[in-house]
Input
Amino acid sequence: MAKLLSPSISITFVEKAASMIERGSRGIVALVLRDASIKGEPEVYTIRDVTGIPAGWSEANKQYVKDCLKGYSTAPLKVIVYVMSATEEAEQLYTDMLSYLETETFQWLAIPTVETDGKTSDIVSWVKTQRENDNMIKAVLPNADAADCEGIINWVSTLSYEETVSSDGNNTTVTVKKYTPEQGTPRIAGILAGTDITISATYAPMKDFSDTSRLNKSERDTAVGAGKLIALWDGEKVKLDRAVTSFVTTTANKGDSFKKIKLVEDMDMIKTDIQSTIQDDYIGKYANSYDNKCLLITAINGYFKTLVSEGVIESGTAEVDIESQRTYLESLGKEVMVNGSTKKPDELSDDEVKVANSGSHVFLKATVVLTDAIEDVSLTINV
Output
């Protein structure tokens, strides 16, 4: 007898030549800080605006939260701030922190000391594992050149900002300070968490900064092509370049759409939404009959219809995955009762496979056509 495991949902989005799946969950940032005020166990805060920032934190940590809350088209829904010791050894601190975050709900992770702590590669591995286990989180990490993962944003730019040192009413002294890439990760996570679902973060302005590490067009193209998220100076302001993930190595099932942050966000939202709906409303609550499978399919298709009306996708259709269900029936190694008669699985018609008893398993597939944001414009002017 097969070993029984926890009820599971496997929803795999396979990108095809002309169709992909997209919709993104956004709104919540997990921000990990190290602060001298923490003498023992880590502390966790849920902060929705700047009034919730504890007065006892360092000025740098207060600013990281403020940076995160600035968002883009909207502010993040909230920031879950995990604060740990500034002096204890990183290994156990990170182990405990990741164990805690695995139980939290958030979409974006930023750790402005991760490179200093020597933990960038560990976070890359953890995010990859979480996504493999259907926890669709993403992290903004500094200089994560080897990540090659749609769940990792490889932020590499230095940001400059002006700080007023003194003013006597007539003369003002201003100094220029810089954010290293790791120090800039909370700002980027906030932008991505605050990006409206129908738009991209490409060219999102960052007017709180006065300059950035400048690259020419060729250098920018090379960086973006290598899966690096960078800032650019357009002559007037600092803004993000093309909003890309670190994913660069395409496969048959993962194509170019996994390189775009917007599309990955959209894919993650679809997967998360459907999983939570199935877990909350279907698993354990219905007999696994064909009629009840049709109820589930109808619910998913209704969800897709809503996304179409919101302009998130162009179309979406869910149906029974006949091939997977046939493979399952064949794996049982016995004949199947369908419509009052017994047949071998390889003798069943597609319609018979649909209605066959599949135990506790439901095999579905969906085809979704996505709507991308405008990022490339070609204009020919004839005079």
Notes: Confidence is low (pLDDT under 50) at residues 8-25.
